[in-house]
Design a protein that fits this description.
Mean pLDDT: 87
Number of strands: 4
EC number: 3.1.2.14
CATH topology: Rossmann fold
CATH architecture: 3-Layer(aba) Sandwich
Largest sheet: 4 strands, parallel
Shape: globular
Strand order of the largest sheet: 1-2-3-4
Distance between the termini: 22 Å
Order of helices and strands: HEHEHHHEEH
Family: Belongs to the thioesterase family.
Radius of gyration: 17 Å
Structural class: alpha/beta
Number of helices: 6
InterPro entries: AB_hydrolase_fold, TEII, Thioesterase
Low-confidence stretches: none
Enzyme class: hydrolase
Protein name: oleoyl-[acyl-carrier-protein] hydrolase
Oligomer: single chain
Helix content: 40-55%
């Protein structure tokens, strides 16, 4: 298992944020190619990460004829959906409005949101992600772009709509799994266990179909 670590955070804190999602995907593809060469692989992405996983899968297929066994997306409307979550212009939000936005999304403990230092550290990162998402404009394709199955996980109390739209992107099957919780439902241990077990089972079956 390999986790994607984006520029501008964690051990890459000193690196400038990416300008657009295609730049992010290209960087991921470059890093992954030596690892996944001649191996089966799959992608999982949550929220913003769902779109990164999708665009990365597209680049791998278009440029290298490689496709993930399965694409798992979480808390994300289809990229071409008119119901895709509208990202506010964080540059125009006051600190109080920014705090309210985090509370609505859920997943961040309230005591951290109220912490001025934590909030000020989070603002540049969220602004960078919002900028990338605002620039990501994706039209509904005339035909399926992928051929493998897609699974969409979503919280029962999430504001995300049009999960079904992901079916437009693949000739494979679409499976939707709703779990209790909000946008960050996957932080609940029982939900995390379900997702882990579900992915493992899907990959076992997908691997068998390849031989």
């Amino acid at each position: 298992m390999h986790a994607v670590r984006l520029a501008g955070r964690e051990t890459r804190l000193e690196e400038p944020f990416a300008n657009d999602i295609y730049q992010i995907a290209e960087e991921i593809v470059t890093a992954l190619l030596p690892i996944i060469q001649d191996k089966a692989f799959a992608f999982f992405g949550h929220s913003f990460g769902s779109y990164i996983a999708f665009v990365t899968a597209l680049q791998l297929k278009e440029k290298y004829k490689m496709e993930p066994l399965h694409l798992f997306v979480s808390s994300a409307s289809a990229p071409h959906s008119v119901f895709r979550l509208q990202i506010p212009d964080f540059n125009k939000l006051s600190e109080e409005q920014f705090r309210d936005h985090l509370l609505v999304f859920g997943g961040t403990p309230k005591h951290l949101i109220q912490d001025q230092d934590v909030l000020r550290q989070s603002i540049p990162l969220l602004k960078a992600d919002a900028t990338v998402m605002k620039k990501f404009d994706f039209d509904k394709p005339s035909e399926a772009l992928l051929s493998r199955d897609i699974t969409c996980f979503v919280g029962s109390e999430d504001v995300i709509k049009d999960i079904e739209g992901w079916k437009d992107l693949t000739s494979g099957k679409l499976d939707i799994r709703e779990l209790p919780g909000n946008h960050f439902y996957l932080m609940v241990p029982d939900n995390e266990d379900f997702i882990t077990n579900y992915i493992a089972k899907c990959l076992e079956l997908a691997s068998l179909d390849c031989f």
